[in-house]
Amino acid sequence: MAGEARGFQKVANKGDLKEGGLLGVEVEGNKIVLALVEGKVYAMDAVCSHEGGPLEEGELMGHDLKCPWHYALFDVRSGKVSDATVWATDQKSYPVQVDQSTGDILVNLGGGAATTSTA
Ligand code: FES
């Protein structure tokens, strides 16, 4: 079966984000939250693993994103839940590229989850 190889696709522009800010985007029906920390862009699932809170409406504190509903903390670099809020589980995070000339933000949804077989 020839599955569609999903590569990097444009989801936003760096001009849409401000330092320490969040932006929700939708990619192929997946809600993704982008975060800009120290000039770097990170992407992870925007639907909280706890009860589905909208992480793009959360609060960014350094690399930690706080869910607006029950305040689970996730590291935007890895999607990992903080040791302080273990009642939530890790979010999926995605590789990000930024086009240095245009500022376009590209995310690769097919990049992670090596153990998940959907073929
Ligand atoms: S829905 Fe995010 S912490 Fe509960």
Automatic annotation (TrEMBL):
Keywords: 2Fe-2S, Dioxygenase, Iron, Iron-sulfur, Metal-binding, Oxidoreductase. GO terms for molecular function: 2 iron, 2 sulfur cluster binding; dioxygenase activity; metal ion binding. InterPro entries: Rieske_2Fe-2S, Rieske_2Fe-2S_sf. It holds the Pfam family Rieske. Transmembrane segments: none annotated. The keyword Metal-binding applies. This is Ferredoxin subunit of nitrite reductase and ring-hydroxylating dioxygenase. The keyword Signal does not apply. Residues 9-105 form the Rieske domain.
